[in-house]
Description:
Distance between the termini: 26 Å
Strand content: over 45%
Number of domains: 1
Radius of gyration: 16 Å
Structural class: mainly beta
Shape: elongated
Mean pLDDT: 91
Largest sheet: 4 strands, antiparallel
Number of strands: 7
Amino acid sequence: MSRNILTPLSLVSQRFTGPASYTTGGFAVRIDGLRVVEDAFIQVLGSRRHAEVASISGNVVTIRVNQFDYPAAAAGPAVEVPAGTSLTAETFIVFARGF
């Protein structure tokens, strides 16, 4: 008889300050306490910007940052923050689940 043993998943949260110069496609952060990240969610504090997971590799999460770049009278989709933008005033909290 074979037995499947599941590895228990952990949920961790970690705060990061944004980079001084944003790179198109996102910036990478390492999640301490996990060897492998299964999935993640990102919250941006004190900003009207939106962050999403661009990719996950091992315990490194790449964060893509978007903003609404149009006048208030018009509607439109969020667009990626331009390359070179300083995000040092932004605080990102990554909630990651993995083992």
